[in-house]
Amino acid sequence: MVVAPSIRLFPPSFSSIPFPHRSPFSSRWRSPSSVSLLLPIHSRLQSTSANGDIGVELPGDQAEIIFMGTGTSEGIPRVSCLTNPLKKCPVCSKAAQPGNKNRRLNTSILVRHPGSSGTHNILIDAGKFFYHSALQWFPAFGIRTLDAVIITHSHADAIGGLDDLRDWTNNVQPHIPIYVAKRDFEVMKNTHYYLVDTSVITTGAAVSDLQFNIISEEPFSVHGLKITPLPVWHGKGYRSLGFRFGNICYISDVSDIPEETYPLLKDCEILILDALRPDRSSATHFGLPRALDEVRKIQPKRTLFTGMMHLMDHEEVNDYLTKLLESEGLDVQLSYDGLRIPITV
Ligand SMILES: [Zn+2]
Ligand SMILES: [Zn+2]
């Protein structure tokens, strides 16, 4: 029997969206965003981690972001650095120690959004190392369900973990909605063909049960949370999506921001932005100097960088960024795996 793949266009009609999609900066979205924005980031971060820091229990109705991964595709430490007989990579040597903040898996965040039917866990990207991220942080933070996955783009470090969602759909919940742009869904038809068209699966095989929702570059709603795509370039001619929810803007893979995207970043309170390496940009990612220039242009209240490679030493770069708070008033720091920040959306 041929079973039609579970696909539907999303949203089917903007008239069904319970907010004005052309007015993302209405007063509702301009309200103060973070409960902790009055403090500089350096003091706030002490209270947010289960990564060896002093943790703080957040109230059950508190929205939050958990950083599932903050590193490049190959992960930090690199195996090649640890096997190099010269052992000359200090960051990877540090990252090899459990709990070290230089230890980074593929970029991903979990948005925990309390609603009338409980807290929804909305994941942005499930890359190659998703299993390892979930293994580390889901039990630690008491996270059970995966209520939606939103995809930034179709590189392996963003979608490589979709197969691992089988553990949830076999043992926790019947299915998981996936929100993905059409171009990336077309890629998945090849990379994850058996998840897109379940008719090819041998009867009895228990793969992930995913419901694909095709998104455009217009706002959409996930479990009552308004999500605004932030289209960016991730290499010449290759599109990736950042996402805005409330006054939080998340852009994990970017080499250039089109002019038409800047208005969508207006009044951003917390910016989470790609910063690959300390010295320069690559063809596909912002380096730290360009990322800082964008922070000066976008003027968020607070910025956390993500997607760092092994040339970015957590303590050293953060020391440098701390000085920018004093000299320029820029509240900018590196994120790290397991970082947990309260938000208001
Ligand atoms: Zn290294
Ligand atoms: Zn990518």
UniProtKB/TrEMBL annotation:
Q: Which residues are in the Metallo-beta-lactamase domain?
A: 105-308
* Taxonomic superkingdom: Eukaryota
Pfam families noted in UniProt:
Lactamase_B_2 (PF12706)
Q: Which PANTHER family match?
A: HYDROLASE C777.06C-RELATED-RELATED, OS09G0363800 PROTEIN
**This protein's name:** Metallo-beta-lactamase domain-containing protein
